[in-house]
Amino acid sequence: MQRLDPKEELAHLQSIYGEENFSEIYGNLRDAFSTLQVRSQILLSLVTICLTITGFSGPSIAASGPYSKMALIAGLCLVLSAGGSLLLSAFDLQWITRYRGDSMQETLVGIIERRNRRTRSYRLAMLLLVAGLTCYVASVVVFMLTAL
């Protein structure tokens, strides 16, 4: 399988839905934005859970030693970065009907490019969250080892 650029993807969508069936293609792209929104909300919920847990157990974990403190701080920074990344990119509310090119083809290519940018932002936030969670787990492991 090959990865398509936005113009190739539009041609592929036109081969699926029909050359002039712009409403179906438009609906497909609108659904993609909805999927990104829902997944971003799930990530933001995980960020909120991490921050809540840090508020309750963070001080005692950090007090267990410098390694758990550093891992906890790194995890906190990475999780906050993931949340910030989501809020500044994936949650930037802009309607797809707000943009219009010189032709319907150009409009749809522009919408695909916007969707791709939001997808990259979502992936960045997901990577930051996973890295932050990894640091959190490391801090808890160190905490548990020092508690023995």
- Uncertain runs: none
What is the string of helix and strand elements? HHHH
Q: What is the count of helical runs?
A: 4
Note the gap between the termini: 52 Å
Largest sheet: none
Which percent band covers the strand fraction?
A: under 5%
Number of domains: 1
Structure summary, number of beta strands: 0
**Proportion in helices:** over 70%
Cα gyration radius (Å):
21 Å
Which structural category do the helix and sheet elements fall into?
mainly alpha
Can you tag this structure with a few keywords?
148 residues; mainly alpha; elongated
Question: Brief overview, please?
Answer:
Helix content is 82%, strand content 0%. The protein has 148 residues and is mostly helical.
Description:
The chain is mainly α and 148 residues long. It has helices at 6-17, 22-62, 66-90, 104-147. The model has no long low-confidence stretch (mean pLDDT 90).
What's the structural blueprint in terms of helices and strands?
Layout: H1 6-17, H2 22-62, H3 66-90, H4 104-147
Helix pairs in contact: 1-4, 2-3, 2-4, 3-4
